[in-house]
Amino acid sequence: MYSASIRLQSGPQSTLTQSYLADALIPALNRLGFSPIGAFNLDLGPETPALYLLIPSVALDALVGAELRLANDEEFMKAATPFWNAPASAPAFTRVESSLMIAFEGWPRLVVPPVTAEHGKRVFQLRTYESPSNQDHMRKVDMFHNGEFEIFARAGFWQVFFGDTLVGPRLPQLTYMVSFPDVSEVDVKWNAFRSDPQWKKLSSLPRYKSEAIVGNVSNLILRPASFSQI
Fold it and tell me: Is residue 2 within 8 Å of 100, Cβ to Cβ?
């Protein structure tokens, strides 16, 4: 799983990048076998405007070789020209940050929300948990496999992906994405999660309660771009 956040400035930058993703990059990635591709606008979080791109893959070598294969795709290069050739005086983006993740064993595949196919209304929550040590990180991953997936399901979350970050900033960390029909349901679903008897039992176990196994949480609200496949 590859994710990228693209920092933008309001105005032409945003329009150029949206067009690049919709008309050049996502169609070319689909031709290479990557699907579905997620594209999201940052709604609530730091440093807006920003676009988030999510590319799932079942093979690491396919991700590693994608850039070279794109450069040899004439259709892509033609559509990508305005973005790739943007001058330094008017760059297409401010900065790009990327991460490479491996899916949790207990959630090995990305799951698209049930309303996506009909372009139904949906919002996404992207959460990153940083841990103070590798041991604490593994304990937090273990919590998901020992009940959290089921608690999310009972609370009504649409669970999209859960990934352990292999390459990226501020390691060790994990990142996951959940979805809702509307932002008004975020607090409702989380209240149901926290009040679930299984969560109370799980979070009180000495293995997880002995120290703070999560040191920092990043919490973003994203809305899918019109061309997002997730």
Answer: yes
- DSSP three-state, residue 72: coil
Q: What is the pLDDT of residue 159?
A: 97
- The list of the chain residues with pLDDT below 70 reads none
| CATH number of the domain bearing residue 72 | 3.30.70.100
Q: pLDDT tens across 141-168, in order?
A: 999 999 999 999 999 999 999 999 999 8
pLDDT at residue 6, as a whole number: 78
Count CB-CB contacts under 10 A for residue 79: 19
Determine phi and psi for 207, rounding to 5 degrees. -60, -35
List the one residue out of 218, 225, 38 whose CA is nearest residue 126: 218
What is d(CA 209, CA 176) in angstroms, rounded to the nearest whole number?
21
Domain match, 188 and 201 both:
yes
- How many angstroms separate the CA atoms of 156 and 143, rounded? 19
Domain count across the chain = 2
Residues 132 and 95 in one domain: no
Residue 182 in contact with residue 121, Cβ under 8 Å?
yes
Do 93 and 105 reside in the same domain of the chain? Answer: no
**Residue 105 belongs to a domain:** yes
Domain enclosing residue 179, as ranges:
101-224
Query: What's the pLDDT at 43?
Result: 87
